[in-house]
């Protein structure tokens, strides 16, 4: 830490915390610094495990006084690594997991350490949901601040589109509530910027009637049919109703529990999604996706929405190695489809995939200037996921993702989904390209609420930008 942070000041800080202060010599240090992505191996000087807002205020004050690196940890489902910094202070909100539903108002209040499984459990009891990701272990904070692309996106929008208000501790230690009518500039930035303007301690979301049962599609096809399946998928999306939100994955997707020995090691094409409406109508709407070719396996069903949210959890275990990047695609021409098939075959890991997410619908009906989220113009999102177990294979898996992205930029304006950012290695260049004309506005908000750069010193894109949506991602 920096010299002004004396032992006496640290003692006073620790005494003020209701949570725990964890140092490198403490027994729980290695567990406390670990996040979901096993590639992340950072060593903070201090971890303040906050019990509530008062602890967050104390931690922000300490970081400002010490002029040290700072990172913010929410649910800890962290693909980019920005939840943990080296040689600085981690403001850890992972113990702050309360969720409260107002079924009459159709709203839910969520603390920053909660994961989507916590939210779905509470809202589902009332037949409600707010859009999350597609893996229930994902942290609410990071996913929302980066946008939040999930199973309800085309009908009910992004996670950040459903944000009514956010409780924030700013860099000067002030506690404010940001909404459309209070601190509106801060509220604009929180909806899709990735963070960097304060520590969000709680979120309030709109909810929608969903389920409890929904029609779902989860169908696998032979990899040698991937090109024609993607072409048929493209045609399907051209007329799909807003209730249908789907994505495709191309890769081996090795799983001996799902596939027979003859195909378990072969490349496959999968399509997954659900219908946010009447299940019987949904089954008819999704039926064409189950007939793109002769399927290898079809796990489509009418199932509980909360169960569908958890369907991919086991595919993304904590501690495995992950490196994900993305591009918003201008379209899905045959030439792009050919390259997707090529890169899926070239993946060095049997667990890696090249994914295409259908966007549009409710996402595109919100004006580009209404929030910081930058992907409303795109019909599709490309996600390139390297998932592997062997630490000696890091270089080849990271190179595969980067080479794929370099190739696929010919089909994109270069903007990215900030929840699939790699390790933010492009820095400000990534943000400038992604936010475009809104970049200067975002910088102004950051300078207003963090004039001394307290959160600008952290690793990654911004305070709270710690989520991977883990939507397959």
Automatic annotation (TrEMBL):
Signal peptide positions on this chain: none
Region (Disordered): 453-473
Homology family: Belongs to the oxygen-dependent FAD-linked oxidoreductase family.
Name under which the protein is recorded: FAD-binding oxidoreductase
Listed GO MF terms: FAD binding; oxidoreductase activity
FAD-binding PCMH-type domain sequence ranges: 40-210
Keywords per UniProt: FAD, Flavoprotein, Oxidoreductase
Cofactor (UniProt): FAD
Listed InterPro entries: BBE, FAD-bd_PCMH, FAD-bd_PCMH-like_sf, FAD-bd_PCMH_sub1, FAD-bd_PCMH_sub2, FAD-linked_Oxidoreductase, Oxid_FAD_bind_N, Oxy_OxRdtase_FAD_BS
SUPFAM superfamilies the UniProt entry points to: FAD-binding/transporter-associated domain-like
Pfam hit, one: BBE
């Amino acid at each position: 830490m920096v010299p002004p942070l004396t032992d006496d000041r640290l003692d006073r800080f620790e005494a003020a915390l209701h949570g725990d202060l964890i140092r490198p010599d403490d027994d729980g240090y290695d567990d406390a610094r670990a996040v979901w992505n096993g590639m992340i191996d950072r060593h903070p000087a201090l971890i303040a495990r906050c019990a509530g807002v008062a602890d967050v205020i104390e931690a922000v004050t300490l970081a400002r006084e010490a002029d040290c690196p700072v990172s913010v940890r929410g649910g800890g489902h962290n693909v980019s690594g920005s939840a943990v910094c080296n040689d600085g202070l981690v403001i850890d909100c992972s113990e702050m997991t309360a969720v409260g539903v107002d079924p009459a108002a159709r709203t839910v209040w969520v603390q920053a350490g909660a994961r989507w499984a916590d939210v779905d459990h509470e809202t589902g009891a009332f037949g409600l949901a707010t859009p999350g990701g597609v893996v229930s272990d994902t942290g609410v904070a990071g996913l929302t601040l980066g946008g939040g692309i999930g199973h309800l996106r085309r009908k009910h929008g992004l996670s950040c589109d459903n944000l009514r208000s956010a409780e924030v501790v700013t860099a000067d230690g002030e506690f404010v509530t940001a909404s459309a009518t209070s601190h509106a500039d801060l509220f604009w930035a929180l909806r899709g910027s990735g963070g960097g303007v304060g520590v969000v301690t709680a979120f309030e979301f709109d909810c929608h009637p969903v389920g409890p049962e929904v029609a779902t599609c989860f169908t696998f096809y032979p990899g040698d049919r991937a090109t024609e399946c993607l072409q048929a998928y493209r045609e399907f999306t051209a007329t799909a109703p807003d209730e249908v939100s789907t994505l495709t994955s191309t890769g081996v997707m090795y799983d001996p529990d799902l596939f027979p020995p003859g195909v378990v090691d072969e490349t496959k094409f999968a399509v997954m999604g659900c219908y946010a409406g009447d299940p019987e109508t949904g089954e008819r709407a999704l039926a064409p996706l189950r007939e793109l070719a002769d399927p290898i396996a079809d796990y489509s069903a009418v199932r509980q929405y909360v169960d569908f949210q958890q369907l991919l959890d086991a595919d993304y275990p904590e501690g495995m190695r992950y490196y994900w990047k993305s591009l918003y695609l201008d379209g899905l021409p045959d030439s792009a489809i050919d390259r997707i098939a090529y890169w899926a075959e070239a993946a060095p890991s049997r667990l890696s995939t090249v994914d295409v997410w259908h966007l549009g619908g409710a996402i595109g009906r919100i004006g580009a200037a209404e929030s910081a989220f930058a992907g409303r113009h795109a019909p599709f999102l490309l996600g390139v996921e390297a998932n592997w177990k062997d630490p000696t294979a890091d270089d080849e898996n990271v190179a595969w993702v980067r080479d794929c992205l370099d190739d696929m930029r010919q089909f994109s304006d270069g903007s990215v989904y900030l929840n699939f950012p790699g390790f933010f290695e492009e820095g400000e260049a990534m943000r400038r390209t992604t936010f475009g004309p809104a970049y200067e506005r975002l910088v102004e908000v950051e300078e207003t609420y963090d004039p001394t750069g307290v959160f600008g010193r952290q690793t990654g894109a911004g305070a709270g930008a710690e989520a991977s949506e883990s939507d397959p991602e």
